[in-house]
Design goal:
It is built from eight helices and no strands. It is an all-alpha fold and 323 residues long. It folds into two domains: 158 residues; 163 residues, no CATH class. Helix 1 packs antiparallel against helix 2, helix 1 runs antiparallel to helix 8 and helix 4 packs across helix 8.
């Protein structure tokens, strides 16, 4: 990244805080979406973009949840347009971050289309799951944009030490498993398989995996993949224990995974109470953000290490040329 002037660093800092605020709102939007689903309000507004033929319909609880979800989505979109206008008006920020902004708007566009299809196709499982995944991708893209802006606002680059071997593989594996877990969670919810296994740790007091087909199979796969996520982040936290910056993130991610497992078990044993279901979704989205932050830190650390090697090689060549 090219160094910014003092004035542009202040602009980058403001834009970074703005992107972070929009990311928080987008994360809240994911949680509200979970509440909409938990209250069975996904089709409370059966048309789109209007709700029951009106911009502002008469409310009951379900309509309020669904309409509120749409209103919050609109607020996030408007906020993002304002942020983009602010950034694009600055020549240096426009040069550095227009590609990142393009990705954020592209994901938002896909999410809007999926939101409409989710309603118009009557909560088809593939639309519900894709909507969930794209919503989390949107939050991650905003988080990456925010971190890039805030780091560019610093007077000097963020120091990043070399990471232990296999860190990149473990970080990537953990992120992939989290994405798979989100997808499985969406499929469990959209197929109403949350109570397909009513006991824990065995499924219906039978076995860990009585079948891998149908609603029970989806529920079982969700549980089994959760164990893999636990193992991946335990290994990552151990591998990165000597890396202060990334190691802390990995340790927090492991703690969040373990908490998520506890909440998931409570969700089943307490028969899917709305509050626990919403908390389960909120923690899943938070874990996705942490997984993305870890991948970003590992990637930037590897890039910094490669640049350091290249600079050292250039320096050696210069010294040999002087001789």
């Amino acid at each position: 990244m090219s160094p910014l002037s003092d004035l542009d660093r202040r602009s980058a800092r403001r834009a970074g805080h703005g992107a972070a605020a929009i990311a928080v709102l987008a994360w809240c939007l994911v949680v509200v979406g979970a509440l909409v689903r938990a209250h069975g309000a996904g089709l409370a507004c059966p048309d789109w973009p209007l709700c029951l033929g009106d911009v502002v319909p008469e409310f009951d609880l379900k309509i309020a949840f669904e309409w509120g979800h749409r209103a919050l989505a609109g607020a996030v979109s408007i906020g993002l347009v304002g942020l983009a206008a602010y950034m694009l008006a600055n020549r240096e920020l426009r040069a550095e971050f227009r590609a990142s902004l393009g990705w954020v708007f592209a994901i938002l566009g896909v999410q809007i289309v999926l939101g409409a299809l989710t309603v118009l196709l009557g909560l088809a499982p593939w639309t519900v799951t894709a909507h969930l995944l794209t919503g989390n991708a949107f939050v991650v893209a905003l988080l990456w944009l925010s971190r890039g802006l805030l780091e560019s606002a610093r007077p000097s680059p963020v120091p990043r030490a070399a990471l232990p071997g296999a860190s990149a593989v473990l970080a990537a594996l953990g992120a992939v498993l989290v994405v798979v877990q989100l997808a499985l969670g969406g499929l469990v919810a959209s197929h109403y398989a949350g109570l397909a296994c009513e006991t824990f740790p065995l499924c219906n007091s039978d076995s860990l995996a009585p079948t891998l087909s149908g609603p029970i199979g989806l529920h079982v796969l969700h549980r089994l993949n959760a164990y893999l996520v636990c193992a991946a982040y335990a290994a990552l936290a151990w591998r990165m224990r000597s890396s202060a910056r990334t190691g802390r993130l990995a340790l927090v991610a492991l703690g969040l995974v373990l908490l998520q497992v506890v909440v998931g078990v409570a969700n089943v044993l307490l028969k899917l109470p709305v509050e626990i279901t919403a908390l389960h979704s909120a923690l899943a989205s938070a874990l996705a953000l942490l997984a993305a932050l870890i991948v970003r830190e590992v990637w930037l650390a590897r890039t910094a290490a490669q640049e350091s090697v290249e600079l050292s090689a250039t320096g050696r060549q210069a010294l040999e040329g002087m001789r």
